[in-house]
Amino acid sequence: MKIAIASDFHLGYERFRKDAFEQCQAALSEAAEAADAIVIPGDIFDMRAPKPDVIAEAINIFRNLSKRQWKAAVVEASAANKAYTSVPVLAIPGTHERRARGAENAVTLLGLAGLLVDVSDGYAVIEKGGERVMVYGIGGIAEERFRDVLKSLSPKPKEGCFSIFVFHQSVHELLPFSDDFVYTDELPKGFDLYVDGHIHNRVETESHGKHLLIPGSTVLTQLKAMEQEPKGFFVFDTKSGKYEFHRIKSRRFVVVHAEANGKSADELESAIREAIDTALSGGGVPVVRVEVGGKVGNGARNIDVDYNRVAKAYEGRAVVDIVKPGIEGVEHDSDADALRKGELESMPVKDYGLGLFLKKLKVSKYNLPISASQLFDLLSADTSKDKAVKTALEKLLAE
Ligand SMILES: [Mn+2]
What residue numbers bound the domain in which 269 lies? Predict the structure, then answer.
């Protein structure tokens, strides 16, 4: 059987909303052409409570998939994962869809609507011409809880099936920033293929001697250098054990550099424009990130360059994002500094926020009955700060 793996569509992502929608659509329709089934390791949506318009986008995309003539079908699911469709499109919620325990998330809703099969904390079996493929999933959760969940669920491969384990977490070997991040050898043993989401660049590695594949996101989100690679999805052939990466049409992203060393503000502006121009030749309207480094010369101050004006001058030709990581004299605290230095190169901002939160709580000797990561979830569950704090307080007092 051919299994397509496409991830992290981030539907509803504000900055590149059209790109997110179009590139998700391209990935899924091309995946349906190329494979017998599709596995989605999380972050279909960019937020926990997508607006109706965004949910409508997703419904349209998945309904089109449902209408296709599939040769494979979902024939069995675990008790926790009722399959309301036989269409072989299987997904788990990611960290962007994560909600406090007991609350429904947007991916579960698509499952209830029969547009996909939600395999979080359980499994489903796909069958085609006598061949059976089992997919066991664990939805994205706080990193510090992942080991406990692995222990309590104890996922096992299924006899007579090619078994796939799907999750949505940071992996320590790829992001060695926290001991909470799982190591590849801690993943459940015995599966024939491991699939992870969450990480937005493509990764091909191993766990227990089997492939561990991370397709990366289908849309540009973090504007990091490693996101310059083409977007797309994997197709894994269970018979041959081989896989390939399929590129989709996606907006180009180019990182360029301009050095401020000894330059006047005017000279620096010219250097920035030249750098942007080099990125324009590849066609389309690319996102160009300009990293300005060094020290501006002779009394000229960094602030003399009107970065907004430069970005505006390229409107319609490029989306320009100018950052000044190396410019001296910019005030920053150590945390922001770490972010600028790219220490956390591909660490999702939310995880980074959680890390800071835990650090601060430790300092204040937090020891209330709700775990710190649950508290973080509660506090970030609502866009209204007052409402989030109120809910968190109610929950704390109720425990
Ligand atoms: Mn993501």
Answer: 253-330
